[in-house]
Amino acid sequence: MTKIYSPTVLNPTLLNPVDPAIETYMRGLLSKTDHPALLAMEELARERNFPIVDRLVGAFLETLAKSIDAKRIFEFGSGYGYSAYWFAKAVGEHGKVICSDGDPLNKEKAERFLSTADLWDRVDFHTGMAQSIFAQTDGLFDICYNDVDKGDYPEIWQMAKDRIRPGGFYIADNVLWHGRVALTEYEDVVPGWTEAIKEHNKQIFTDPDFDAYINPTRDGVIVARKKM
Q1: Less packed terminus of the chain by CB within 10 Å, N or C?
Q2: What is the distance between the alpha carbons of residues 43 and 208, in angstroms, rounded to a whole number?
Q3: For 102-127, how does the pLDDT look when each residue is reduced to its tens digit (9 = 90+)?
Q4: Where are the alpha helices (DSSP H) in 79-209?
């Protein structure tokens, strides 16, 4: 799905949930993960101003997936495979990350990057509307990961929550939306997106079948665990 915002360019009137100096320190601890394919994906994001979760959230996603021994993951919105890189590392050679993106060129880039990292065989990449691809995919998932256009967040949550196995995770990026969710006055990227994110977050935290928490790193990552 095409995204028309850039979470890497912050409006100074908005909020940084974590001080940039702290994030710089945290990123410095992750230098051991400097695989050439990862560096190439990050360089492309800088050149094209393309929204990726970046290193701190990527490492967080990998750790979460490993913590529940995830073997089957669905991504709503995959871009050119940056988050899939971290998930594919976590699921191992017998796991599968099902990716979705509306741009065929992103699939080509993902194949190139992830093949270089010896991870492409762990990925099943589909081009088209994430919701349609998900509806056509059977079974439960260890993790459903949401990073589509923000106006669709409540819909994605409603689709995904019953397809997560007990003990599995629903994860979504950009849930603090550069602090807009906490502000009374703000300039939205697309009209209605901030309200959609707020509704999405409220639905998750009030769902009795899930335990939820927001990691404020970068633009905010919500993690909801399906109760056993």
Answers
A1: C
A2: 41
A3: 999 999 999 999 999 999 999 999 99
A4: 82-91, 104-116, 130-135, 153-160, 193-205
The residue whose two tokens read 């490492």 is 59
Q: What is the set of domains in the chain, with CATH numbers?
A: 20-27+34-226 (3.40.50.150)
Taking the C-alpha atoms of residue 48 and residue 61, their distance in angstroms, rounded to an integer, is 23
* Helix, strand and coil in the chain, % to nearest 5: 45, 20, 35
* Residues 227, 219 contacting (CB under 8 angstroms): no
Alpha carbon distance 228, 218 (integer Å): 30
pTM: predicted TM-score of the whole model, two decimal places: 0.92
10 Å CB burial of residue 68 (0-12, 13-18, 19+) is middle
Three-state DSSP state, 123: strand
Length in residues, the chain:
228
